[in-house]
Amino acid sequence: IVVLWYDALRLWGAPGFDAPGPVAEDVEVHRRHFALGLPPPSEMLAEARAIGARLLACETGVRLAGLTPEDARVDEILGLQQIHALAREAEVVLYV
Fold this sequence. Notes:
Structural class: mainly alpha
Number of strands: 3
Radius of gyration: 14 Å
């Protein structure tokens, strides 16, 4: 399960999703990402979805991003309490 928040959620359906952010550190991470020969993040998420990963978003997060549920392009939109319950049940939780 991958939960998209804030800018990642807002940019997920936009052409700039794979571009670096405006901060210098973002540009450096972007440079290292492609120097390692990794595919763009959008392709990595598509591959993960193809093998069973699900993309989720928080209902309020979708609204704060100025998106409609359809614009969010995620598999499911849940409430924050539901997302926290999934995190409590998970063996591994990463906050990136």
